[in-house]
């Protein structure tokens, strides 16, 4: 079951990379640096980040933006570079998810049927 799930995820990723990326680019769909900043430590924190335990206040259990900022400042001190590499991959996945959401919203909003068309 896990293997099947991983195969499906890999296939979806390949489709996005080789087919959909061109579509997103031709439509001008992208995530700016400011938008990514807003998703990570701005006013519109992505729910995935809010759920990461190290970014939750230990006393209240609530998301704490200061913990994100602290992590980002200290991850560069990791001599192995693993934290930086892991975070970069995570941000890339966040941006990709946002692009997919934008594309899906574009498709949803462009599908419109008038009452006359619906009757026909």
Count of extended strands:
0
Proportion of residues in β-strands: under 5%
* Averaged pLDDT: 90
* Coarse structural class: mainly alpha
**Separation of the first and last Cα atoms:** 45 Å
Low-pLDDT stretches: none
N to C succession of SSEs: HHHHHH
Report Rg.
Answer: 19 Å
Q: What does the main sheet amount to?
A: none
Helical residue percent? 55-70%
Which word captures the global form?
extended
Total helical elements: 6
Describe the structure using short key phrases.
120 residues, mainly alpha, 6 helices
Explained architecture:
- It is a single chain.
- The protein is mainly alpha-helical and 120 residues long.
- It has six helices and no strands.
- The longest helix has 29 residues, at 82-110.
- The mean pLDDT is 90.
Helix and strand arrangement:
Elements: H1 2-27, H2 33-41, H3 47-50, H4 65-74, H5 82-110, H6 115-119
Concise synopsis of the structure shown:
By secondary structure, the chain is mainly α. It has 6 helices and no strands.
């Amino acid at each position: 079951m896990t293997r099947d799930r991983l195969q499906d995820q890999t296939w979806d990723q390949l489709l996005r990379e080789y087919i959909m990326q061109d579509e997103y680019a031709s439509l001008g769909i992208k995530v700016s640096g400011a938008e990514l900043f807003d998703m990570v430590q701005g006013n519109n924190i992505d729910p995935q980040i809010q759920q990461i335990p190290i970014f939750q206040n230990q006393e209240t259990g609530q998301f704490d933006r200061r913990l994100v900022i602290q992590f980002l400042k200290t991850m560069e001190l990791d001599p192995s570079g693993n934290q930086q590499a892991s975070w970069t991959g995570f941000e890339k996945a966040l941006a990709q998810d946002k692009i997919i959401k934008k594309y899906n919203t574009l498709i949803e909003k462009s599908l419109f049927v008038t009452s006359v068309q619906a009757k026909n």
